[in-house]
């Protein structure tokens, strides 16, 4: 059997790399790991968290970004319910609307986190409900 070791990165289309870069930095605390410059123009970035446990790539593709508006392609893992409460408070502090904490099919989640292109992100606990 050939083994997989998780995700290397998730790539999302965006209408504006600069606008989305600012949002993902402010909201998720991600930092630029790689810039993709084509013909002298920034067309994409790869962002990572401080512990380098995840990578989200943003690629300037306005038509594709519009096609994902209203969809929730990414759920990010949060280790505990306590950490999810901290995320909820952080989202409130940075002025980002969200669903609040709710029970998910396995653990707890915060949904309704909408990026500048209308793409929804969710935060899910790895911790299971009793």
Structural domain count: 1
Q: Tell me the total number of β-strands.
A: 8
**Shape category:** globular
CATH architecture: Roll
CATH fold name: 2,3-Dihydroxybiphenyl 1,2-Dioxygenase, domain 1
Structural class: alpha/beta
The helix tally amounts to: 3
Write down the secondary-structure element order: EHEEEHEHEEE
Q: State the end-to-end CA separation.
A: 34 Å
Please, what is the CATH homologous superfamily? 2,3-Dihydroxybiphenyl 1,2-Dioxygenase, domain 1
Helical amount: 10-25%
- Measured on Cα atoms, how large is the radius of gyration? 15 Å
Model description:
- The structure is a single chain.
- With 130 residues, this protein is α/β, with parallel strands linked by helices.
- The mean pLDDT is 94.
- It has helices spanning 17-28, 62-68, 81-93, and strands spanning 10-14, 31-38, 41-48, 55-60, 74-78, 101-103, 108-114, 120-125.
- The radius of gyration is 15 Å and the shape is globular.
Summed up:
This protein is an alpha/beta fold and 130 residues long. The protein has helices spanning 17-28, 62-68, 81-93; strands at 10-14, 31-38, 41-48, 55-60, 74-78, 101-103, 108-114, 120-125.
